[in-house]
Design goal:
alpha/beta; eight-stranded mixed β-barrel; 9 strands
Amino acid sequence: QAKQAGRNTLRFFDPVMQAVTVRRAMLESDLRQAVARDQLRLFYQVQVDATQRVTGVEALLRWQHPEHGMIPPGDFIPVAEESYLIVSIGRWVLETACRQLATWATRRETSGLSMAVNISPHQFQQPDFVAEVEATLEATRAPAERLKLELTETLFMEEPEIARATMRRLKTLGVRFSLDDFGTGYSSLSYLNRLPLDQLKIDQSFVRPLFEDSANEVISASIIQLGRNLGLEVIAEGVETDAHCQWLAEQGCDAYQGYLFSRPLPLDELEALLEVSACTTGR
Ligand code: C2E
Ligand code: MG
Ligand code: MG
Ligand code: MG
């Protein structure tokens, strides 16, 4: 009894815990304003094919905070998820990414680029998510077949049938799907076949330390084989060295993303990079 009370008291008055709680509350109230105050930014990281030609980008969110500077998504997406703020933030991301995709579609040099957008589970599970994607594609005139929605395995753990139905409705719009962070979830493989997926994305936790532990090689090679057998494209994320890229290519990997090619960049820097790579590949 005394022990339990002691523990509760400790937790209640623990200044460290209290600081964490206060920080979280501040973060959440700041984040609530972030969309309205125009503090969100999209960075873009290139994706390349087997010939190392740029085929598209992934849109990656940043928060330009007036006091704390540029905040990476790992520091605020979890709070946004828990508070459901991710729904309005995700709407902003989708619209901004689609507007950019539409702009690229009108220029010859960039017309073939695809845009990958991360979709959080809560956002995907909104009853009007399909309608939102449809309306956004219409309003921005972005080409649906170049929009790639990145989903994670957690979506298929609780109510896989509902998620599958939503994917099929989205598929009729023409969008594509990538399964992000593949290999890190707990879901069964049996559902893979039954989803209208286009791409598997090998998680960077296997790719970055590829040669440090033979398990990472085994897992990466297996995912590539699995993708091939299911007729899915496989992309590796977190490709940082030539040796990694070559090894993955030998296993039959189709596409790559990582610091070897480029970090996530603000729009102007990305467009400068695209111009350079268009020159060097003679496009
Ligand atoms: P993710 O979708 O798996 O994105 C890949 C992350 O790996 C990005 O981190 C990217 O910068 C990083 N990365 C890519 N290549 C390399 C590499 O070669 N080396 C290293 N060290 N890192 C690499 P970032 O931008 O910090 O994003 C982290 C996560 O935040 C994303 O993981 C995604 O889950 C989430 N996120 C980002 N933007 C959004 C968004 O708009 N909506 C949602 N719901 N989540 C997002
Ligand atoms: Mg992603
Ligand atoms: Mg990923
Ligand atoms: Mg990841």
